[in-house]
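Worked example 4.2. Below are the chains of a multi-component assembly; read each line carefully before continuing.
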Amino acid sequence: MDFSRHVHILLAVLLGAAVGVGLYTFVYAKGASYMTDNPGACANCHVMDAHYGAWLKSSHGRVAVCNDCHTPAGFVGKYSVKATNGFWHSFAFTSGWFPDQIQITERNLKVTEGACRKCHSDMVHAIQLTSDDDSFSCIRCHRSVGHLE
Amino acid sequence: MGTIPNHTPKPHRRSTLFYVVLVLATAGAVIAGLALLLNIAQRKQEAQSPFYRVVELNDSIEDPEIWGKNFPMQYDGYVRTVDQKRTRYGGSEAVPRTPDQADPRSIVAQSRLEQDPRLRTMWAGYAFAVDFREERGHAFMLEDQTYTKRQEVAKQPGTCMHCHASVYVPYKKLGDGDLIKGFEKMNQLPYKEARKLVSHPVACIDCHDPSTMQLRVTRPGFMEGIRALKASQGVADYDVNKMASRQEMRAFVCGQCHVEYYFKGPEKRLVYPWANGLRADQILAYYEETGFKDWTHAESGAPALKAQHPEFEMWNQGIHGRSGVACADCHMPYQREGALKISDHHVQSPLLNINRACQTCHKWSEEELKTRAETNQERTLSLRNTAMDALIQLIGDIKAAKAGGKTDQQLEQARNFQRRAQFLLDFVEAENSSGFHAPQEAVRVLGESINYSRLGQVALRDGKSVAGTD
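Applying the procedure described above to all two chains together yields the following structure tokens:
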């Protein structure tokens, strides 16, 4: 009985320490900003400075923010993509295992393609009707609309 | 009856295991959290102080190691130019050799003469036919030139130092503070005398101003060459260090040496033949006007020219040059070092660094970009081989005609065609991008070369002038 209580106290202390470190890191790394739609948050760590600057100058710089094109619609979809990308970005930046010219993943490219078609559905539904495969891509031709080149 | 006691210790063992796993998992999570925290802290710290002044630099400090104390990351890249790496169509391979008295090198690059023996015929009678190897990185520029066998068969002037050594401080010393005077003096020294005055391959001071780190041109050959070029374009008294933009300087500092040149007159002044323009045929026209020749071809007797690594000129004819993309953008692309962005001073082929070199602008996969570059190179090399065969046949025909009793007068026109065909072919051959810097221009020049080889053979066959070609 006594032994078990000691273990519980130790566990609680350890857990508290872990939560403390996690919370401090969260605040220090401006973790809350990542829950918002503020584009500035995406350039917190400067890796995407150039992308942020290019977005400001692009045709979408006044009408769409990062999350409009880089997260899917709906609360669950949006925050699950944010969580997945948040984890992998933290992992990449901490380990340093990422190319200097960052490359979008297949998964995130699909999210962006979906965002184009969502907002511009009036324009593109006729194109979609005539093409039943996934091979066509808005940004193949309109690639500078989100980030001016 | 005897089985019951066996059951009692099990829950205890299970819960111990559970706690152990839990503690380990928590420890792992805390370690990951701390790693992230410290990493962020370190990046924030780095962003605040991009550079520490450890030593005071001035215009007389030649040793790059001293500069490297203030700029350790750039220096680290610079030192790595010792790497010997191949690309599909270029780059150097480390070849072992047994050091001897005359040449202490234990590693050299592969011999181009062995790869393509036709080069020996093209350069017959000239030092390059004796020893010509694939160029290695910047780190070896001085050593490789000191010990090439070309030094044994030809008397080289001190002019060579202009581009094979860090020569800014030695020029100024030799000229008592006057760069141009020092340049003129060193040109006239024998190679071995001049060699004693220099000690480093190209170094920081050759491209950077020590007080501001801004790029600057320190090579008299380029200052005078670009002035002549600009004068031909209607810009008088061009001073590159005052009138060039920052982006232009990111190509001009490389153009100080990666160019076509010749040694003018008995004073062996280094001259970049750009007074008519930078294209191969404009440079050839300049040599025709001045009547310059590098040597007399041993087999044919033609007044031959040797082209030398005209990367700057070829880049100027291509789409990257046209678009204002400088040498440094692809050969010294920006790289991330923690929170800092620096120019990669490990100067190398962009094909060894496609992500940073190409993908900054081109949104295609590395494989696709590499294939595009290699396709251009493969096509250039294929036509280069055709042009080489054509030239070798012309040289063989002139040689046979000479043996058959034709006079110098009868051979003059064919020899002049050989001179032109050979220079244009060598212009592409010596250019170190295998055509990439300007693919269409490279094959155009090769096409012109093939035509001159053809005209040379026609001149021999008909024994009279080919109308409308002179």
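Take a moment to check your reading of the output against the notes. Chain A has a mean pLDDT of 88. The domain at 36-141 of chain A is CATH 1.10.3820.10 (Multiheme cytochrome fold).
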